[in-house]
Each structure stands twice: as C-alpha cells, then as structure tokens.
Design a protein that fits this description.
The complex is a heterodimer. By secondary structure, chain A is mainly β. Chain A contains no helices and eleven strands. Chain B is globular, with a radius of gyration of 13 Å. Classes of the chains: A mainly beta, B mainly beta.
C-alpha cells in the first residue's frame, strides 16, 4: 500500500465548476501536510499548507481529517489556468524534513 | 524564486556509462534533496544532505551516490546507468523555519 494515495484522475470539469480532490495517508505519525501543483513538464510548486482547522486561500480550501487520515482540496470557480496535476504531500519526519508525495491527481478545466 | 538550478536539463546516455547531475543553489540553505519522478510513483527520495559532506540515503538510493563538497552544490551520480534509471530528476531545498520544499526545474534523463 502506498503511503500517500490519490485518485489519478483525470478530472475533466467545465470552467466555473467546483471540484474536490481527496488524498489518504497511511502513517498516523505524519506531522505536516501540503498540496503542491505541478504543471506539465515543470517542477512541483507549493500551492498551500494544510492545517488541522482547515484553511482557505482565495478559491482554494484545504481540509485535514487526522482521525480518518485524509486530506482534501476544494477548488471553486475553476479557471482554465487551474489545469495541472495536484500532488498531496506529507511530512512524517521533521528530523530530515523529507517529504512523501502522492502520485498526483490530474485536473483538466475545459472552456 | 528559490534560486535553484540543475544541469544538464536534458541528457541521453547509454547503459553502463557514468552520469553526474548537478544541483546548484544560491541561498546557502543547509538541506538539499534529490528525487526522481516516474509515472504512477510520484516523487521518491533518492538521497539528501543536511550539510557539507553530510549525506544520507532515501528510499530509492540503490545505484546512486551523492556528494556535497560545497554548501551550494549537491551532485547526484549514477555510477553505471541502467534503463530503469530513465526518469525526471528533481533537486529540492528546504528553508529554515518552513517545512515545505522548493524544487529546481528538473533534469530529464534517458538511458538507452
């Protein structure tokens, strides 16, 4: 079983739609949680951190459920520019600060 | 911009040849990482470094070695490249006070 699991998609949605991605992680000792965005043939870039109380950044909302060990990302009012792969990322070892990545969920926003 | 560059950006090589990839940062951050990215696997940690001459293995370190003789440079070497090492390689740094990482632009390696 992978340590971080995501539905690979693709999620094909029209502009303006609301779309949600979920991610599950297996290690209950995980400390920190993030969503990264990766455009085709580019490096991953931090989209947002995920806090226990949930957090919002513009059209993006992230939620963490420690009891069920899942993380979610909600995108409202989807834009064409949101088309990318979204990576769920977990940090379970603050000593070496290495991250564990999900395989990503691909989003395609269509006009 | 985290000031990370990688070289070369693309490389084609033959099985059995040695290959060295370079990661260079301009900010003198202590922690540096090498990952590989393959379809269906996400990014996987190869090696990391927590200072000059201080390195350790990640989850997929077999067939790879690293060196860090200067703070700004972290080298990844494939001693004898194999086709299974065809991948996209990303270097990353972590910044003090943050738990996230910032990535370089990647190196696409094809081993024939």
């Amino acid at each position: 079983r992978k340590e971080v699991e995501q539905d690979p998609g693709p999620f094909n949605v029209p502009e303006g739609a609301t779309v949600a991605f979920n991610c599950t992680y297996s290690n209950s000792a995980s400390q920190s949680f993030f969503w990264y965005r990766q455009d085709c043939r580019k490096e991953p870039k931090l989209l947002m951190s995920v806090y226990s109380s949930g957090n919002e950044d513009g059209r993006f909302t992230a939620q963490l459920n420690r009891a069920s060990q899942y993380i979610s990302l909600l995108i409202r009012d989807s834009k064409l520019s949101d088309s990318a792969t979204y990576l769920c990322v977990v940090n379970r070892d603050t000593g070496r600060r290495a991250l564990t990545f999900g395989s990503g969920t691909r989003l395609q926003v269509q006009p | 911009d985290a000031g990370i560059t990688q070289s070369p950006r693309h490389k084609v090589t033959e099985t059995g040849t040695p290959v060295t990839l370079r990661c260079h940062q301009t900010e003198n951050h202590r922690y540096m990482y090498w990952y590989r990215q393959d379809p269906g696997h996400g990014l996987r940690l190869i090696h990391y470094s927590y200072g000059v001459k201080d390195t350790d293995k990640g989850e997929v370190s077999d067939g790879y070695s690293v060196s860090r003789s200067k703070t700004e440079d972290f080298l990844l070497t494939l001693e004898s490249a194999t086709s299974s090492q065809t991948s996209v390689y990303f270097c990353a740094i972590s910044v003090p006070g943050e738990e996230t990482q910032y990535f370089g632009p990647g190196t696409r390696l094809l081993v024939l």
